[in-house]
Structure formats: structure tokens, C-alpha cells
Design goal:
The complex is a heterotrimer of chains A (about 180), B (about 230) and C (about 550).
Chain A lengths: L5 E2 L2 E2 L13 H21 L8 H20 L7 H35 L5 H8 L11 H18 L1 H16 L1
Antiparallel strand pairs in A: 1-2
Helix pairs in contact in A: 1-2, 5-6
Chain B lengths: L25 H36 L1 H8 L4 H27 L5 H34 L21 H34 L9 H26 L2
Chain C lengths: L8 H4 L12 H5 L4 H29 L10 H37 L7 H23 L13 H4 L4 H28 L12 H33 L12 H33 L8 H14 L15 H29 L8 H24 L1 H7 L3 H31 L5 H27 L14 H26 L57
The chains are: A mainly alpha (about 180), B mainly alpha (about 230), C mainly alpha (about 550).
Chain lengths: ~180, ~230, ~550
């Protein structure tokens, strides 16, 4: 084994030291505090009715929280730049995945409205006035098993509600 | 996983006993382990991104159904779990820090690493217990994924096709919960190695990588929580 | 690429090669030596190449006459599905990275091993589990969805699509872990002096491949997992009967599977870059262009997947965008082909078997690539989609691109792997037969497809008979050629085969600077790299891109 050691084709000056950054405990405590505050914030905001702004606000807060975790708890702020590159690169590819797929779904719907080449299941049901077959109602065999098992229990107690939902469900399943 | 080699080291003279034969320096070994972990995290992010995309698509298709169905999730349980996971992330970061400043073969420093690992494990346990109660409530009400969905027969009439929402809910939280369980197993393993006094400022890549994994679990929950439980 | 003065020659008689370093079955099954793992991958992928090739011959033979001959429609569906699934997931994707990459990558970098040797063993075992799972589908009702698992059929079929999907999920893990290992190896394990611009182009290609494996495969994992869950629970994401969207499945699937096409072909590019330089004794033309075009292809491959969905019901607007982006792939690919041709120009070409395969690749791959442009054009694709034109196109790229370069690479590195020479005369005969057989088989299918012959049909109209028969006869010639290639390679395993010595081709890259087969830890002393792997000393370098 040679005396000199190399990394990435370059001589390493102090091979027996590991380069590391040790954050002060205070940093971690502040970050934790900020994370709790932000969690409380989203929790509180969820009770306010922000309408269409609710999703962007929630995502913004989540992104800030995530950045704190990544930057401080995961040390990416002080780490090898290449690890940061890996992380951000991943986000870019996730963006590509989301961007194209969601763009297709958006623009596909626009075309649908024009040409009516596709209809969503739900639209179908809306147009025919029949409620969709939900879950177990899609599967006659499983539904029969369920009713055999829970028949007495639910037949009496929730008769009215279950009857309404179930009835419509059967209608949907048969169509 | 990527740090698995580090205790298979050949003891060569004055070299660090944790240095594997095919590396030249601890710096190279630790850097490789960490880069490997980050690449692994990249794959995890991409895998979960598929589920998040599925969520957004379903939300786009059936906005009213998603908003109706998500009301049945317990915001409080989700909020408690968020705080528990955030706190566990903190204790994990402290465990890593304790290893970073730990002196070799020092009982006291090893005990500090172990203390923080125990705290993290405890939080993970609380998270799973809360999850268990949430899941059993959903099971009881028939709010199950796909063709097992029976809530409408239990008297809960949710507009549209809620079996899709609960499918997405159970798949996302289930896969996340699976990662929590794996994370606990990793922490037990790290704990055992810490008991053997393996970790110190000269060798902490394994603790650090376990930490990175655990923070990722936290990271995913940070997005799952508002999307599934809170958003209107 | 020169090495330190202390060369291997004085040692090579003393230290045993990696085959002899340890013995016993366990020393193979639990080895962490990248070369042994590479050899085990090689044996596995060749086995699956044979199995899937056998299925292909069965398919072609059934198509010899228009009517149904010896397999039923359902069996035919299972045959082409298994042919595709085994070829894709068990042969093409793991072949070059798993087998040649494992053996060569650390050697080319001057490293003692890959960064995570035990992870490497794990990915081999995961691969084996996936292989068993995929083969088990045969016993459990087969698989008849096509290798693409399109919903809703894959959700409702009575065949073992759930198990197969999980098998693909597991195979994906193996692919991810291999890619991860290789990226870290390239970043962290290079020998002193081995800067990025002194890496062999095979390493660049494997690196770009590994990047795609890491970025794309996780999405495949979640996709097939969703299909499996959709089958078992019916959650309604992909299944329209439950309120899901089947086109969404295609987005998910092709987000992985289009980049996966480049997981398959990029390593082939790397092999060809080595073959054309070493056997024409000339510095590669445009080193940087070839290296960076690999990375460019890796990135562009992620923004073109929608060209698989032109007629699936995605929006027309995004179809146009995807069509446009697809053309962009042609640019880096053409840069590579031109560079290889320019490398050959004026070189001292040695017409041996590896070179014959390399030249064959230039022909077949270029046809495959150019016909891809036809299919990227929406208006043409509407006519040609799901016809034999598509079948011919992707066989020209996959078989004519990857499989042929893989076989050429085997011939090239066989002296390094086995320490002995293959049979040159049989090697050349095999190249000739493969070339004729391949073009007869798949060249004909371009015409069939253009006339409207749909893919995946077990019976067809009588007017297609002649061309189907030509294609079938071609497939037999192709199979014969591959068998002869196998015999030629197998002859190197005899004790009487001529010994190769460390560097039979007088190549400059590091894998040739150690014994053949290499010793267990690859090099006696860490090699020091001082120049490009393509600076051949005895020739005029004026044609080279840079030195």
C-alpha cells in the first residue's frame, strides 16, 4: 500500500481525519422549535377556510419544514456539494414526472369538454342520475358475503341510511 | 444498507479498524457511504413521488370526494404523530451528533448515543401505536381500500368514490409505516453496534446514514400530513 | 494509460487468479468479489437469453403459416409476454451493467472493488429471487399481459400478473442497488490520476446508465406495486371500473420504461466505443462529445415518454410536445454514431470478431435509431403503432443495438475474463450469420408492419405469408449464428485454447494492465493514470479529438 492516499484522483492531505461539521446543540433545538411552530400553524390554518389558497399554503409550510429538516438535521447545508446536487436533481426529476403527467390530465380534460371522447365514471353517474358503485358494491360476491355476515347487525340499526346508499350502489353495479 | 460493509474491515497495522480493505482512507469510506445513502434516498423520494402523484391525480379527478372523505381522518391523531416524528428526528440528529463528538472507546459517550437512539425508538413506537388506533377505527367503520370499502353499509355516506381515497390513504400511510418499522430495525442494529463501542468521531458513518434514513421518513410524513389530513 | 513501473508480469505467476483464489460452492454464492459476481451474472443472463431466445423461436415458428399451428392463442400470448419480460428484466437490463460492468468497472477505474461489495452480492441475490418469481408465473397460470402490464387487462386477467408484477418490483431493486453502487464507485474509487476525462468511455456509459437506474427504477417499483394492489384490493387508481385512469398507468409505466430503453442501450454504446478504438488502433474521435452525449441521453430520456401514448388517449397537445422532444434524442445519438465512424476513418482496423460485431452494430443500430424518428412523428405513428414496424424498430435497437454489442463485448473481453482466446474462425462465422439472420428476420418486419400486420397476433391474413416465412427463416439463421458464437466462446474454456496473456489487444485502459484473468484484488499496486485510455503509442494521433 502506498504512503499517499487519494480521493477522486487527488492526493488527500490529511487522510486520517474525517472532515465533518458538528452543529451546536442550540441549532437543533431552534430547528425543532421552528418545526413545532410551523406544524401548529398548518394545523390552525386547516380550520380556517382559505378556499383554493389552502393547498398552496399547506404545501409552502410543508416545504419550509422539509427544508429545515434537510438543511439542518440532514446536514445538507454543510455537506459535500454533490450530495446536495443529488437531492436537488431528484426533485427536478420528480418535477418532470409531475409536470408532464398533470399537464396531460389538465389538457386532456379540456379536449374532453370539446369532443366528449372520454367520460369519467363520476360524470357518467351524474348524467344518469345513478350513484356510483362504491367499494364492496362493485363485487357482488363480496357484497353477499358481507350481508350474510353483518346482515342482522346493520339491517336494523342503519336500515334507512344503508338502504339508500346500498340501493343506489346496486343500481350502479348492474349498469 | 449502503453502510453495511464498514465493520467488515481488515485490521491492517496502524489503520483504523473500521476501514474496509478496498478503501484507502476513512474519509473516502465515509464519503462513499454517505453518497450511497443519498442516492438511496433519491430512489425513495422518487418511489414515494409516484404515490403523491397518484394522490394529486385522484384529487384532480374527484375533488369533492377527497375533501369529503378526508374529514373522516383524525386531525388530532395526525397532528400528534407529526410532532412525535419531528421530535424523533431531533433525537436522531442528536444521536448522530453524539457520535460525531464521541471519543473512541468511551463508555460515557457511547451511552449518550444509546440514550438518543432509545428516545428515537420510543417515538417511533408511539407513532405506530397512534397509527394502530387510527387504522382500527377506520377498519371498524368499513373505511377500507377499494373493493373492501363498506362504510356506506355502516351508515357513512360519503359522496362519490371514497374507496379510492381510502385506497390512497392506506397505501401511502402503510408504505410510510413500513418504512418506520424498517427504521426501527435499523436503529436496534445501530444500538447494538453502539453497545459494542463501535462509534466515535473516527467512525460514525453508519449512525449518520441511519439518521439520514430516519429523517427521510420524517420528511415524507411532513408532506403526507397536510395532504391527507388537513388540506381543504 | 500507463502504470507504475512495478508491473504485474513479475508477480503474475505467483498470485492465483480470482477463480483460483478461493474454492468451493460457498466461495461463489457468498462472494463479495466483483469479478466473481460478474461471472455469476454473466452465467445467469446468458441462461435467460437462451430461454427467452428459445421462446422467440417458438413464436416465429408458429407464425410460419397463417393459421394456428401448434400453440393456441392463449399460449401465444404467454409466449410473447414471457419472451418480452425475460428478455427485458432478466437479460437486457442486467446484462451489461451486471455482467460486464461488474467485471470491468473497478478494473477500468484501477479500484480494488466496487464501493459496496456486500451490497453488490445482495443485488445479485435479489436478481435471482426476481428471476425465480418471474419463472414461477409459468407454473401459476402464466402471464398474458405483454411485458408492459397495461391496465385494466393486467388487473382483471386470470393469469399470474400479480406475482409477475411483484417479480418485476424485486428485479427493480436489484437494478437500483447496482446503479447506486456503480455511481458511488465512479465517484469515490477512481485510481490516482484517473480524472473524469481519463475514464474509459465504457465507464461513462455505465455511469450514465446507473444514473437512469437510480432515477427511473423507483417509479417502476411503485407502478407495479400499485398494479399488484389494484389487483388484490381494487383501489381504483388505474382501473377504470373502480374510477381510476388507465392512461395514468401508462404515464407511470413509461416514465420508467422509456428511460429503461436507455438503461438497455447506453452500456452498448460504451462497449462499441471501446471496440472501435482498440481494434482500429486509433484515439477515439470526440471523447468529450461521446462522454457527455451519454449523460445528455440519460437526461433527455426522461422527457420523451409520452411518445408511447400517442394513440392511448393522452391530450393531443402534450403528444405534440413529446413528439418534438423525442426528436431531440437523435442529436446526442447521432453525435455518437458519427464519432465512431470518424474514429474508424483512417484507423488501422483489425478485422477480428469484436470488430465485426462493432461494425454490425453501427449498421443495425443506425437503422433502429432512424426508424425511431418515423415513430416519433405523430401522424406516421398513428398508422404504424402496434404493427410489426414497431416490433422491428425496437428489435433493431434492443437486439441489434444491445444484444449485438454485448456479444461483441464478450468476444472483446473474453481473453480477460477467461485468460484464453475464443475460436476466431467460428467467431467470424457467427458474426456473419447473425448479421444475415438478424436483418432477414427484422428487416422484413418493417415491410410487414407498414402493410398493416398488427403485432401480438398468433394468426394472420394469407397475404402476409411470404414475408412472415422469410422472417421466420431469418430467425433460424440468427439463432444458428448465436449458437455458433456460443461455441466459439466456449472453446476458450478448453485447456488447449491459446493463452491470451494480460493484454492481447495492446489496449491502453487499465483492465488490460493486470493479469488475465485478474488476481483477486485486481492490481498488485494501485495503478497511477497519466494519460487518456485511447492514446495508442504507435500511431499517428492527429485524427483524435484531443489528447
Amino acid at each position: 500500500m502506498s504512503d499517499k492516499v487519494f480521493l477522486n484522483g487527488k492526493v488527500v492531505e490529511h487522510p486520517h481525519e474525517i472532515h465533518h461539521h458538528v452543529s451546536p446543540v442550540r441549532h437543533y433545538q431552534v430547528v425543532l422549535g421552528a418545526l413545532f411552530v410551523l406544524t401548529g400553524l398548518t394545523y390552525a390554518v386547516s380550520f380556517a377556510s382559505l378556499g383554493p389558497a389552502s393547498l398552496p399554503v399547506a404545501m409552502l409550510v410543508a416545504t419550509i419544514k422539509a427544508s429545515l429538516v434537510v438543511g439542518y438535521f440532514m446536514h445538507l447545508k454543510y455537506d459535500d456539494r454533490y450530495n446536495l446536487f443529488v437531492f436537488l436533481g431528484t426533485l427536478i426529476f420528480i418535477g418532470i414526472f409531475f409536470g408532464f403527467t398533470l399537464f396531460d390530465l389538465e389538457s386532456r380534460d379540456a379536449l374532453n369538454d370539446d369532443q366528449r371522447t372520454f367520460t369519467r365514471v363520476e360524470e357518467d353517474f351524474n348524467n344518469t342520475g345513478v350513484k356510483p358503485a362504491v367499494g364492496i358494491s362493485n363485487d357482488p360476491q363480496r357484497l353477499a358475503e358481507f350481508e350474510a355476515k353483518h346482515g342482522g347487525e346493520h339491517g336494523a340499526g342503519h336500515g334507512a341510511e344503508a338502504g339508500a346508499g346500498g340501493e343506489a350502489g346496486h343500481g350502479g353495479a348492474e349498469h | 444498507m449502503s453502510n453495511a460493509h464498514s465493520h467488515a474491515a481488515h485490521t491492517t497495522g496502524e489503520h483504523n479498524p473500521h476501514l474496509a480493505h478496498h478503501f484507502d482512507t476513512m474519509g473516502q469510506q465515509a464519503g462513499a457511504a454517505k453518497l450511497g445513502m443519498w442516492l438511496f434516498l433519491a430512489t425513495e423520494l422518487l418511489m414515494f413521488s409516484g404515490l403523491f402523484l397518484a394522490y394529486f391525480v385522484i384529487r384532480g379527478f374527484y375533488p369533492d370526494m377527497v375533501l369529503g372523505a378526508h374529514e373522516y381522518l383524525s386531525k388530532t391523531a395526525g397532528g400528534i404523530n407529526t410532532c412525535v416524528l419531528l421530535f424523533s428526528s431531533y433525537t436522531m440528529a442528536m444521536a448522530v451528533r453524539s457520535a460525531q463528538v464521541g471519543r473512541p472507546n468511551n463508555q460515557e459517550d457511547a451511552a449518550r448515543i444509546k440514550k438518543y437512539l432509545i428516545l428515537t425508538l420510543l417515538c417511533a413506537g408511539i407513532f405506530l401505536v397512534v397509527k394502530y388506533f387510527e387504522y382500527s377505527a377506520k377498519f371498524e367503520h368499513g373505511m377500507l381500500p377499494g373493493k373492501f370499502y363498506t362504510a356506506h353499509l355502516h351508515g357513512y355516506d360519503i359522496e362519490g368514490l371514497p374507496h379510492i381515497f381510502f385506497g390512497v390513504y392506506f397505501f401511502m400511510t402503510g408504505l410510510h409505516g413500513f418504512h418506520v418499522v424498517i427504521g426501527m430495525a435499523i436503529m436496534v442494529w445501530i444500538y447494538l453496534r453502539a453497545s459494542r463501542g463501535e462509534f466515535s468521531e473516527q467512525n460514525y458513518a453508519a449512525v449518520e446514514n441511519a439518521g439520514l434514513y430516519w429523517h427521510l421518513v420524517d420528511l415524507i410524513w411532513i408532506f403526507l400530513f397536510p395532504l391527507l389530513y388537513l388540506v381543504k | 494509460m500507463s502504470q507504475q513501473p512495478a508491473t504485474q508480469d513479475s508477480h503474475s505467476s505467483e498470485e492465483p487468479n480470482f477463480y483460483r483464489a478461493k474454492s468451493g460452492l460457498m466461495s461463489w454464492l457468498f462472494t463479495v468479489d466483483h469479478k466473481r459476481l460478474g461471472v455469476m451474472y454473466l452465467a445467469s443472463v446468458l441462461l435467460f437469453f437462451f430461454v427467452a431466445g428459445f421462446l422467440a423461436i417458438a413464436l416465429r415458428t408458429e407464425l410460419f403459416t397463417p393459421a394456428q399451428d401448434f400453440v393456441s392463442a392463449a399460449t401465444y400470448n404467454q409466449l410473447f409476454t414471457l419472451h418480452g419480460a425475460i428478455m427485458t428484466f432478466l437479460f437486457i437490463i442486467p446484462a451489461t451493467p451486471g455482467a460486464l460492468g461488474n467485471i470491468l468497472l473497478p478494473l477500468m477505474l484501477g479500484a480494488k472493488d466496487v464501493a459496496f461489495p456486500r451490497l453488490n452480492l445482495l443485488s445479485f441475490w435479489i436478481y435471482s429471487v426476481a428471476a425465480v418469481m418471474l419463472l414461477c408465473t409459468l407454473l401459476l397460470g402464466g402471464l398474458d399481459t405483454g411485458w408492459t402490464f397495461y391496465t385494466p387487462y393486467s388487473v382483471h386477467t386470470g393469469s399470474a400478473a400479480g406475482l409477475a408484477a411483484l417479480g418485476v418490483f424485486v428485479a427493480g431493486f436489484s437494478s437500483i442497488l447496482t446503479g447506486l453502487n456503480f455511481v458511488v464507485t465512479v465517484h469515490r474509487m477512481r485510481a490516482p490520476g484517473q480524472s473524469w476525462d481519463r475514464m474509459p468511455l465504457f465507464v461513462w456509459a455505465i455511469y450514465a446508465t446507473a444514473v437512469i437506474q437510480i432515477l427511473a427504477t423507483p417509479v417502476l417499483a411503485i407502478t407495479v406495486l400499485l398494479v399488484a394492489v389494484e389487483r388484490f384490493l381494487g383501489i381504483g387508481i388505474f382501473d377504470p371500473a373502480m374510477g381510476g385512469d388507465p392512461v395514468l398507468f401508462q404515464h407511470f409505466f413509461w416514465f420508467y420504461s422509456h428511460p429503461a430503453v436507455y438503461i438497455m442501450i447506453l452500456p452498448g454504446f460504451g462497449i462499441i466505443s471501446e471496440l472501435v478504438t482498440v481494434h482500429s488502433r486509433k484515439h477515439i474521435f470526440g471523447y468529450k462529445a461521446i462522454a457527455l452525449s451519454s449523460v445528455a441521453i440519460a437526461i433527455i430520456s426522461f422527457i420523451v415518454w409520452g411518445h408511447h401514448l400517442f394513440v392511448s388517449g393522452q391530450s393531443e397537445l402534450i403528444g405534440v410536445i413529446f413528439s418534438f422532444l423525442t426528436f431531440a434524442v437523435a442529436v446526442p445519438t447521432a453525435i455518437k454514431v458519427f464519432s465512431w465512424v470518424a474514429t474508424l476513418y483512417g484507423g488501422s482496423i483489425v478485422y477480428n470478431t469484436p470488430m465485426w460485431y462493432a461494425l454490425m452494430f453501427l449498421w443495425t443500430f443506425t437503422i433502429g435509431g432512424l426508424t425511431g424518428l418515423y415513430l416519433a412523428t405523430i401522424s406516421v405513428d398513428v398508422h404504424l403503432h402496434d404493427t410489426y414496424f414497431v416490433v422491428a424498430h425496437f428489435h433493431y435497437v434492443m437486439m441489434g443495438g444491445l444484444a449485438i454489442s454485448f456479444v461483441g463485448g464478450l468476444f472483446h473481453w473474453w481473453p480477460k475474463i477467461t485468460g484464453r482466446f475464443y475460436n476466431e474462425a467460428l467467431g467470424k462465422l457467427s458474426a456473419l450469420l447473425v448479421f444475415i439472420g438478424f436483418n432477414v428476420t427484422f428487416g422484413t418486419q418493417f415491410f410487414l408492419g407498414h402493410q398493416g400486420m398488427p403485432r401480438r397476433y398468433f394468426a394472420y391474413l394469407p397475404e402476409y405469408t411470404t414475408m412472415h416465412q422469410i422472417s421466420t427463416i431469418g430467425s433460424w439463421i440468427l439463432a444458428l449464428g448465436l449458437v455458433i458464437a456460443g461455441i466459439s466462446l466456449a472453446m476458450a474454456l478448453r485447456k488447449s485454447a491459446p493463452k491470451a496473456g494480460p493484454n492481447p489487444w495492446n489496449a491502453m485502459s487499465l483492465e488490460w494492465q493486470t493479469a488475465s484473468p485478474p488476481i483477486e484484488h485486481n492490481f498488485h499496486d494501485t495503478p497511477h493514470v497519466t494519460c487518456s485510455p485511447y492514446d495508442f503509442p504507435e500511431i499517428d494521433k492527429s485524427g483524435g479529438g484531443h489528447h
